[in-house]
Each structure stands twice: as structure tokens, then as C-alpha cells.
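EI: anyone free to look at a 117-residue chain?
SC: sure, send it
EI:
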Amino acid sequence: QVQLVESGGGLVQSGGSLRLSCAASGFSFGSYTTSWYRQAPGKERELVAAISIGGRKTYADSVKGRFTISRDNSKNTLYLQMDSLKPEDTAVYYCNAARVINPRDYWGQGTQVTVSS
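SC: here you go
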């Protein structure tokens, strides 16, 4: 069955770094646009970064220059390198895989990232 499993979250001090991973299985990972979203308490889920099938990357303004999204299709894995973390980055981070043709939209269960000041 389809699975997206995030890992790498945790507690880090302001200015620190974390690397999130999302392991995919059960579908053709390389044929999907993949993204990271986050949701902070009391706020709506927001797009953090996305990487297309062709490798084009987009970022939310709030993370530009600090976060880097990448993917390894040979390992069916999506990554998010987060540097210079700030307390406002605290949220549950979700992995997403989606396609437009014969639409599909898959989500992971989320991983908590907490940045202390």
C-alpha cells in the first residue's frame, strides 16, 4: 500500500539544523511532485517547499535561503535540510506527493519539529 514515512524531527535550539527525510513506497515516486508542508498550533497547514518531477524547486518566502529541498528517486526519498532554524519554524512537518494526471494526493503522518529560543 501507499506509504510516506517522515523522520528526522526533534528538538533543536534556535540557529541549529535538522534534516527531515520522507521514505515513499507503494507508488511511482519519480512521477510525482513532492513537497513539504507544516502546521503550527492554531494555524493552517502551509507549503514550505516543493520539488517537481524535473527538479524545479520552490520555497515559501519565510524559509528561502535557510531550507533546501531535495529528492533521490533511486531511494524513493524526499529530504528537507533546515538550517538557521527559528522558533517560528516550530510545527508538525508533513511530506506530500501529488500528481495532476489521474490525480493522486498522498500524505505522511507528520514529524514534530520544535525550535527553542
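EI: The first strand starts at residue 3 and ends at 7.
SC: 👍
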